[in-house]
Write a structure and sequence with these properties.
- The complex is a heterodimer of chains A (194) and B (124).
- Chain A is built from 10 helices and no strands.
- Chain A starts with 15 loop residues before the first helix and ends with a helix.
- By secondary structure, chain A is mainly alpha-helical.
- Chain A has one domain (16-193): Orthogonal Bundle (Rna Polymerase Sigma Factor, Chain: A), CATH 1.10.1740.
- Chain B is mostly helical and 124 residues long.
- Helix content of chain B is 73%, strand content 0%.
- Chain B starts with a helix and ends with a helix.
- Chain B is rod-shaped.
- At the A-B interface, helix 2, helix 3, helix 7, helix 8 and helix 10 of A face helix 2 and helix 3 of B.
Chain lengths: 194, 124
């Protein structure tokens, strides 16, 4: 059986020692240290938030909320543990909260935002057709399922870490990743075969 | 595609790369700048209230002190205007005018009714 722990390649994982130092410096009021943490995790946080929310602008707002919320809670962070899963849990929660508020505000007309990403002409111009199809396929998945598959296949977190981030059992994570992969891989295969 | 592959415990590089491209955010520097701007704003917001709170408290303190001074002045003035309480029991019953209580009690003739009532209703 393959090891459950994911390799760090392509997963934007950061070394533990430097992180602990950055966290300590941030706690002592070092703005630059906080800036380095934000730079390192910005892309990951934005992707995870987008997996939850769909709309890129709203996802950015949620990711920002997540960073600020993490800053407020930073004293509670156990520096012996990896920073990424802890931060991603906060970001995912911030995005989920936004999603709930959005659902309260309006009866959701599916996730149209995932398909086109909202009115951003500068960004839309460079998006590939495959990316559009993948976003559309992601939008059809339940939020927890697409977040799980993004955390696993894009960010490289283990099932156990994703269970901690999403607050669900590890077995549920495996199931969510399985079902998401089945849908997305079928789409990818169709695309390659076309 | 088999179910075994679906349950693979390693990330799928092809799917991962495609998803990453689909979700890749733009303008990373702008995002970081916005987060740091919010960091600065939060710091500023957390320091400004110190002065505002102190100022609010000082304004409130001055108002309360003024009200207390007015109240104290009113009470003091009232206390100074009030007649002094008699020092002894005899002084309290001493006549303030007329024949007095002793004269009424020891007189052979009954007192005039108006005098008796006057002794009851007359303020001391």
């Amino acid at each position: 059986m393959a090891p459950d722990r994911q390799p760090p390649e392509g997963a934007a994982r950061i070394g533990g020692v430097a992180e602990a130092d950055l966290v300590a410096q941030t706690l002592s009021g070092d703005r630059a240290a906080f800036g380095v943490l934000v730079e390192r995790y910005a892309a990951q946080a934005r992707r995870v938030a987008r997996a939850v929310l769909g709309d890129p602008d709203e996802a950015d707002d949620a990711a920002q909320d997540g960073f600020l919320s993490a800053l407020v809670k930073l004293a509670q962070f156990d520096a012996r543990r990896p920073f990424g899963p802890w931060l991603m849990r906060i970001v995912a929660n911030a995005a989920t909260d936004r999603r709930r508020r959005r659902q309260v505000r309006r009866a959701e007309a599916l996730d149209a935002g995932l398909v086109g990403g909202g009115p951003r002409p500068d960004a839309d111009a460079v998006r590939s057709e495959l990316a559009d199809h993948l976003r559309a396929a992601l939008a059809e998945l339940p939020p927890r399922r697409r977040t799980a598959v993004v955390l696993f296949d894009v960010e490289g977190y283990s099932h156990a870490e994703i269970a901690g981030i999403l607050g669900i059992p590890e077995g549920t994570v495996r199931s969510e990743v399985f079902h998401a992969r089945r849908r997305l891989r079928a789409l990818l295969a169709d695309w390659k075969g076309a | 595609m088999t179910d075994e592959r679906m349950f693979d415990h390693r990330p799928d590089p092809d799917l991962g790369a495609a998803l990453r491209r689909a979700l890749e955010p733009e303008n990373q520097a702008g995002f970081v700048a916005r987060v740091l701007a919010r960091y600065d704003a939060a710091l500023e917001a957390s320091s400004v209230p110190t002065w505002e709170v102190l100022a609010a408290w000082s304004r409130r303190g001055i108002a309360v002190a003024a009200a207390a001074a007015v109240l104290a002045g009113f009470l003091l003035g009232r206390a100074l205007r009030a007649p002094e309480a008699p020092a002894t029991f005899d002084a309290a019953f001493a006549p303030t005018g007329g024949p007095g209580l002793a004269a009424l009690v020891t007189a052979a003739d009954p007192p005039d009714a108006s005098v008796a009532f006057a002794s009851l209703v007359e303020p001391r």
